[in-house]
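Late entry, evening session. Most of the bench is empty. Finally got around to the prediction I had been postponing all week. Sequence below, unchanged from the version circulated by S.P.
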Amino acid sequence: MASKEPIENPNTPNINFIGFQKQLREIIKDIKQSNKKTGLNKIFGGKKQVNPHVDGRILGNDVPNNKEVSKLIKQLDSDPTDPLVRLRLVNAVMADRKVHHLQTHLNMMLQASIPIYLSDITTTFLQLVMHTYRTYLERLANIHKHNMMAIRSEVLKNVNMSGIDLEDEDTEDSHVKDTESMKTEIQIAEALIDNCETIIQRVKTKMTSTLSHEEIEELTSKEKVSSSFFSGKSEKANPNKQNMIINKAVQAIEMLKQIPLLHGAGLDLAQQLGRIDNKLTYPLVMEGRIQMQALKYQFLRIESGDRSARGNMAPVYNLAVVAYRKALKLTSKTTPKKSDLPVLTEFGNLTHYGFIHRDLMRFTEEGVMNLVKLGKDSVDAAVTVDESFVPLQKRLESSLAQLNKVEGEHT
């Protein structure tokens, strides 16, 4: 039986993005808890250790003599939700020196991601995340390559190692000891780096609006506060404004789903949208799309040499199926509308993907047959609205024919 949750490879700790997402969610929880405290509580609240990511002082430890960094940390201590101050903090640390340790790169990547997880999503913030994400991966790959060369130089003493830079900073401890795991981390890192430029260009061209945590809070609060914020009065939600914020959130999720580090932020945002009205399908579609990207990430890990990621394909795929099947329950297959097409067709594509990779998904013959039938039923309904989906319908028919043939051979 497949595990309910994906389990990351403990031998590749530097590239386990599900763990990074969990860490970011904990930081966000601590930030929100910190923000609830009044000034007196913060002063007299006791000696309890505060997460060093909340006010960003975890970066201050790496540049103790940088006055600008110290000033920004004090500002974040007053308001840890301020995205612009956090952006300036990451930029200041980055500019402090040419080469940073791997842990500092990781901390900068996490700090840059905090505004996104707080639902402050703009082109600038996403570009900063992508920059720190890419430099972290590049640094990791370089360290591993230098460490592997150092190991080989000890074994192969007669090999000419001239021209290889083995400076101390490039051979720092990455907490990965065996060369096979180093190689896997290098391959995964380089595969992700290859995607970075495409994502950056997409963010620049497709991210045409900004989203703030205040807008999301206004959208999801039970009582909508007057836009003046000073009158103290409440008012009914403005449908036009509500739709505008929803559209911006959907656009933001489309950007977040491309980056494994930000999948958690995308899922959290989709779930917040779902609380507006439980009869809406698009939050579930967004959730399904993110899980499909997470599935592709696990497949990338397999291709990069992480054999343990094979065990994650089924649980991640199941999460996508659950999201789309919930959305299907909110649509009509007998009288579908154009607005139902994303649910109907994407579920069809999902079932076809499951058919192609059925061995990885650990399906029983009956299980894959039933799933593909459901997918075909959905696409049959979609074709009554838009005939451009006939090729998908034909692919699913072909898949069913193959499964029926195999079943016939077994009986």
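Two things to note before I forget:
The chain has 17 helices and no strands.
Residues 166 and 356 are 45 Å apart (CA to CA).
Will write this up properly tomorrow.
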